[in-house]
Amino acid sequence: xxxxxxxxxxxxxxxxxxxxxxxxxxxxxxxxxxxxxxxxxxxxxxxxxxxxxxxxxxxxxxxxxxxxxxxxxxxxxxxxxxxxxxxxxxxxxxxxxxxxxxxxxxxxxxxxxxxxxxxxxxxxxxxxxxxxxxxxxxxxxxxxxxxxxxxxxxxxxxxxxxxxxxxxxxxxxxxxxxxxxxxxxxxxxxxxxxxxxxxxxxxxxxxxxxxxxxxxxxxxxxxxxxxxxxxxxxxxxxxxxxxxxxxxxxxxxxxxxxxxxxxxxxxxxxxxxxxxxxxxxxxxxxxxxxxxxxxxxxxxxxxxxxxxxxxxxxxxxxxxxxxxxxxxxxxxxxxxxxxxxxxxxxxxxxxxxxxxxxxxxxxxxxxxxxxxxxxxxxxxxxxxxxx
Amino acid sequence: xxxxxxxxxxxxxxxxxxxxxxxxxxxxxxxxxxxxxxxxxxxxxxxxxxxxxxxxxxxxxxxxxxxxxxxxxxxxxxxxxxxxxxxxxxxxxxxxxxxxxxxxxxxxxxxxxxxxxxxxxxxxxxxxxxxxxxxxxxxxxxxxxxxxxxxxxxxxxxxx
Lengths: 387, 160
Description:
Chain A is of the alpha/beta class. In chain A, 34% of the residues lie in helices and 19% in strands. Chain A has helices at residues 22-37, 54-57, 62-65, 86-99, 122-125, 141-156, 160-173, 189-193, 222-227, 257-269, 275-278, 289-298, 307-312, 329-333, 341-352, and strands at residues 4-11, 46-51, 77-80, 105-113, 117-118, 197-199, 202-203, 212-221, 234-243, 281-283, 367-374, 379-386. In chain A, the strands form 2 sheets. Chain A has a 9-stranded mixed β-sheet with strand order 3-2-4-8-1-9-12-11-10. In chain A, strand 11 (367-374) and strand 12 (379-386) form a beta hairpin. The longest helix of chain A is centred in the N-terminal third of the chain and has 16 residues, at 22-37. Chain B has one domain (29-159): CATH 2.40.50.140. Chain B starts with 22 loop residues before the first strand and ends in a 5-residue tail after the last strand.
């Protein structure tokens, strides 16, 4: 297999509502990624577009709609979609284009414009439920997360304060992110605990917001990187993805087995057998604060039930032993579903190449892992990258 | 067995009726803002220019899809265009018969990449590709900055 590196990344502002069309958002992110890699569209062999349900943007065949802004005009072009998991999965799809030897340079462009959907994207989320068993009860998506969070708290005796610390950490980390929607340098655990209850135990500040935004990364083969003498690159050394049962009621709500399987696949490829020792920092998917904890355990970076303790002890702070979501994550930067690639793959690239600016982890880091979660809340995608 | 029966009415089975409630507000974007404001306020149709590729895009785009430059220069589209292709719709999208056939055209302009699809304001028997046409705009007061500010395209009679 050809060795694949990330050589450029870009992302737009993440905001609740942006004027730009989805195509224009894609263009801005793509142009930024190409510029940062020192390439033009002419250097690109193939393009992968990642974007979540058509119903958010309200454009059927959204991948095809976005192709000009994504640089796909008259090129081999594919849209991939694994719900929220697209944030990391589209890079895996881009990786196999290069790893297989088919392409030297691949653009990966992710976009979401959730503000189009009125009055709120929640009305679209409501229709991912089983039409016969669930929908007649008029469920709200937050119910699932609330029950999963409650189960996690019940089994391990986790206090809400310790979960709220994740929201505080990430919203504070996001202060250093130029694209951030919900950065807050002064937020406290009490702010989270006193925020509006949505579906107990989920409160307003436990959740990331809906957002508009796009992100892009450029992948290239080792040969291309050598020939062009590209200095800023981070190698993709492991990839994995896995999906659990279609029935929400058939899953382990306490431990995300789908993440663990995806992680084990990626770690095996990356020759990682002691993840806690060999991985320096992580960007797990954090649309909810408890999900960061869940996912850290799934990524085998914490023992079962240990992630809240590590968080309380400061291990996951940017200057801690295992920084987690140094980007500010979805909780701080925003959650335009697929475009969260900017904080997952993009942040790994920026951290590993020393370009993270105010967000740069103060100690040296060589290996990072990013993970996204999606589909019907039972899908995990994992990428390991090395500097 | 279900597979052996021909069933045309799903309501014969135990079922649950549903609908996906979703309304949308679409922004016209950076290039769209320029296009629709000029159309509404000045009755002009703008294209965006890529100087590197010697291309003018209609409708205008914020970027060149080919060389990927950001486009910031706008220019007027020629007043007269030409019908590249037509169709006459006899039934609507629900399958209902229309009282009169509706004529639709794809209109292109010399030197401009792309074009517009819009109503052709002629009887069906006079609609043909190759006809020189101009946009017929709604009066200024009635224009709101949407594609419907153009009523349609009508033949340029002085040419015939």
